[in-house]
Each structure stands twice: as structure tokens, then as C-alpha cells.
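Chapter summary example.
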Amino acid sequence: TLSPHPIDCPAGQWTVLQRNALWKMPETKIPLKALGLDPANEYLVFDFWSGKFLGTGSGKIILPALRSGDSLTYIIRKKTGCPQVLGTSRHIAGGCVEVKKEEWDGKQLNLELESQPEDWTLYVFRPEAYENADLTVSKGEAKIAARGKVLEIAVKAGSPASLQLAFKKTNSAK
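The structure predicted for these 174 residues follows.
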């Protein structure tokens, strides 16, 4: 089965796509229009279960073959051209539960995060035009690690967090 779920919450709008294999399923190309998305736009695709950024796509996305009993959950967000949240390790809704505010001011990504009962990871996409970010934690506890185009922010459980990620444009993008 293939189930797209549009998400609209204070942190933004995106689509959560679930594919469940009751039997073996081949690799499949899905037109973005079939998911209710504008095929003229470019989208970021994040695999919730593996915590991996799968890349960008427009027009269609390719879903891998699945074995019987397997499932996948992709978080699909419209690419904005600036740093933006990809998803989290906490909930398949892709940040709707734990990210209360996501705001880009031109140089800094400001995030307000809800308290969670266990440690979790926030994944942020860093476009090539930007260098890795400096993390400022004004409330809560968090650490940052860069993995290619993705910044992984480990957030400690227990209290709400307020984070700022300051970015600089790369020399080639100025």
C-alpha cells in the first residue's frame, strides 16, 4: 500500500509518504503529482527509519523494492534554497510533534523544540551555498554534527529547547 499524508502544522507543510509491503514489491517510480505535490518544484526526500537524506527530486521519486513485511516512511519537503528541517528521529510526522517553530531569517535558522521523554535527533538540510552552521543553544541541551549536506542535532530529553543555527554563505555563493 502507498499512503501520502499531507502535514500542515506551525513548523510548516510537507508530506509523509508511507509504503507498506504485504508482499514483495518492485522498485516503483511515483509521479509527485500522484502525491498531491507540484511536479514543477524540487523536493528534499528524507528516510525516517534510516535517518538518511536520500537527495532531491522533481517530477517523480523512485521508491526502492521492498520485501514482504517491509515498510518505508519518507518525509518529503519542498526545497527552499536555504537551510531547513528535514525530519527527526522522534516521530514519523517529520517534526510536527517536536518542532514548534522553524524560522529562517536570512542568516540563521531559529528553532523552538518541544520537550520529549527521551533523547532524539533533529536533521537539518544545508544547501551547498552555505557552510556548516554554528549552533547556539539558548535553552535546553543539544550538540551538532555535520554529515555532508545534513546537520544532525542531538537533543537531550527533559525540557523544551531553543536553538539557533548561524550559517555563512560559501565564497562561491557570494
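To summarize the output: The radius of gyration is 16 Å.
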